[in-house]
Amino acid sequence: MPGFLGGWFQFYSYFNFTPVNSAISHLLKLFFKMRQEQGLDALIDQQSARVSAKVLSRLLLDDLANVSCKIFGKTADEVPVLLADLAIIPGSLRYEMFDQRIDFTVLGEITNVEYFPLTYRVEGKKYSFHGRCSTIPKVCGVDLYLSKTYTEKLGDKARQHFSVSVKKLLKLMPR
Fold first, then answer.
1. Domain limits at 27?
2. Which of 82, 134, 137, 163 lies 20 to 30 Å (CA to CA) from residue 48?
3. Phi/psi of residue 23, each to 5°?
4. Do 21 and 40 reside in the same domain of the chain?
């Protein structure tokens, strides 16, 4: 790869498995828009007492019971285009108390293959998050790599696993 990109990939691959890589990854996450959370305030709005991990996890489990995930591409004019609409697999919503994490899996059909998947949005009733995605491994500035079930073939079923860190969300909340 000639030019700037060739030099960048050479530099990145050289440091890929060294301690410097974590510093580079941290800087890339700050530079690019990564996963962003919305609706946390609305979710805890009716709580009068201090919100603990137990309370927040219960609220999130209720909110995410019918969660969906939408995967988008963009036209040349930067207009978002829906590529796939994934719904939660019944019974996949679980709370891992030790890790303070909620896990769930969504499944749905690929409905458009004219554009590359670039962004995703996961929506509960009040709480949601979105970010950048890719089907290509090791792409910088992406916080979700779509699973291999996202084949980019019209009509195929895509399955994706998500985790929501209750511990991280507690740190984001005002005290």
1. 1-31
2. 163
3. -65, -40
4. no
81 and 162 part of one domain = yes
Q: Do both 22 and 102 map to the same domain?
A: no
Supply the pTM of this predicted model: 0.78
Tens-digit pLDDT profile for residues 93-133: 999 999 999 999 999 999 999 999 999 999 999 999 999 99
Domain count for the chain: 2
Nearest residue to 103 (alpha-carbon basis) of 74, 134, 60: 60
Are 71 and 13 contained in the same domain? no
State how far the Cα of 150 lies from the Cα of 173, in Å rounded to an integer. 34
Residues 52 and 101 in one domain: yes
Q: Are residue 91 and residue 141 in the same domain, yes or no? A: yes
SS3 136: coil
